[in-house]
């Protein structure tokens, strides 16, 4: 059977797990095309207006698979880590697709719920494997292989590779020829690793001599440690990764600047970015900016923002002063004049 | 210690009664107003939930009146509500407001933490006294909702235009004078009586509209631009999916019968959504199905902009509406929502429902 996997949401993180699992069970995996204007437009048209860009894109990617696959995988990632969630929309994703996308082939809904115990999370995959007609032994074997692949992948991510460099077997670490410095790129995987949506930001930074580092490059222990300063456990896995990743980069003086990429209307980021900004302002005072993406974001405006931020960062590096030429505070972006 | 708390509809009535009973000084935040929202919008991140912005405004306005301790409830995800307290604390700290923030979380693994916090905000009253005060407060909660329910029935049927609103605003002005649960309960009783006496036009057959959606938006009239009253004036009897009573029973009480009933209700959502996705989206879907099955004329979903769980519900509701043949509409509110545009949408919806029913509705 041809199983379609939308190249959207947490695809860049979990693709080795999903793909290996289905292939080991004897199925063929087809991916939706890379994000494009067409996919984006379809998503925007089909999805409810109030949703955020990444969820709209997921709709577009599902539509792209119509006619290309026999069934389409819609992961329901309720919880990927005990006691945590990702985002309410991830839990309701299959319902959103079911009710908004018409004419799709059967949806293969794969639950992942590790809320109580990590191991239990894989039960959803086991069940799906059996529904697809595989024996228990085969399911276990496929799952073992898939998890081994995934573990390998995650450790490569931690050691500084980006999903693109691993998945497309580019051996270079996408570093610029001569490195002037590093910039932390804080954002959900579906923004920082989707070059169409993030306007190729990684290359643009490289062109100015900066290497991007991602939250996935920060080990989980450091993330936990960094977040322990808050009186209450953060219960959003990616929220925690973004915040803890950013704080760790600041704490270890790993970066010359932080760029937060966020989608308009993202409920999780609204809180996470606020906490990161406040901590930075109080303790580290490293230049930071937030770039908000939505379906109307234009290339030109985006580039201007990015250039201005880098200029300001370099200006500050030279004069070691907090007030840049533009008259805005480097930490808050609020106007000083 | 002078306590304050965030506004949520008429929740202030039982909360004030509770602290009065405990002998703890309490400041009821001034009613939510444009100014409240302005303070919140200035302090909170732009994309924060609307309810959180209003909460922040409430705290600041209460602190100006002498409050020094803020009490709020929390939860453990998946939605943002559970992290309001932490973010609010940081914002207050950076803006130089020095308040003690006490978060009452569901007692997970460490019930002692919750108990200590309750003890603290109760001015170290005895457990017996605390238990009695909570019990009384929950009675107040129910009574207030019963009073409001009478008004919802009266508004489309009232003989003298505006009388229902007058009773309500008088009630809201005077209820704060009551001290403690005893006086408050008596006062509500008296007003329930007054409400029941409001004369009706004979033979009125109002439209029936159910409102569902994000709980805070449903409960706080300022945020939903007083949708209950507006619909009432357009000649509709409003049915509320979730009330303060429901919220209290779901989150704060051990009422097992209610919890069983709630489960039964959620089962109605089965064909459309069968798990909790955060916030009250599951309830939203269950209520929508319930209202459709009850034969209501229309359903309106309200949510604050960017509300994650309700966005999921929003994509399901059109299917229910189609399946069951009941018109449904979604209203998203934010700090910029204007009175005029909102009213137009409500009127258009009511017109649609009346046409569907084959009659011209009468506006009161
Ligand atoms: S985390 Fe944010 S961007 Fe991601 S799905 Fe949820 S609201 Fe959208
Ligand atoms: S349910 Fe909606 S309003 Fe409530 S915390 Fe979640 S996003 Fe905010």
Explained architecture:
The complex is a heterodimer of chains A (337) and B (364). Mean pLDDT of chain A is 90; it is low at 323-327. Chain A starts with a strand and ends in an 18-residue tail after the last helix. The longest helix of chain A is centred in the middle third of the chain and has 23 residues, at 136-158. Chain A has helices at 11-24, 37-46, 53-65, 88-91, 93-100, 118-121, 123-131, 136-158, 163-167, 189-192, 201-207, 220-227, 237-251, 267-284, 299-319, and strands at 2-5, 28-31, 71-79, 106-113, 181-186, 210-213, 257-263, 288-293. Chain A is of the alpha/beta class. Chain A folds into 2 domains: 2-158, Rossmann fold; 163-319, Rossmann fold, CATH 3.40.50.11900. In chain A, the strands form 2 sheets. A 4-stranded parallel β-sheet of chain A has the order 2-1-3-4, with helices on both faces. In chain A, strands 6-5-7-8 form a 4-stranded parallel β-sheet, sandwiched between helices. In chain A, helix 7 (123-131) crosses helix 8 (136-158) and helix 13 (237-251) packs parallel to helix 14 (267-284). The radius of gyration of chain A is 20 Å and the shape is globular. Chain B is of the alpha/beta class. Chain B folds into 3 domains: 2-125, Rossmann fold, CATH 3.40.50; 139-203; 206-364, Rossmann fold (3-Layer(aba) Sandwich), CATH 3.40.50. Chain B is 54% helix and 11% strand. Chain B contains 15 helices and 8 strands. In chain B, the strands form 2 sheets. Chain B has a 4-stranded parallel β-sheet, with helices on both faces. In chain B, helix 1 runs antiparallel to helix 6 (127-154), helix 2 packs across helix 3 (50-64) and helix 6 (127-154) packs parallel to helix 8. Chain B is globular and about 60 Å long. The model of chain B has no long low-confidence stretch (mean pLDDT 90). Bound molecules: iron/sulfur cluster (2 copies). One iron/sulfur cluster (SF4) binds at residues 52, 54-55, 87, 89, 188, 263, 266-269 of chain A.
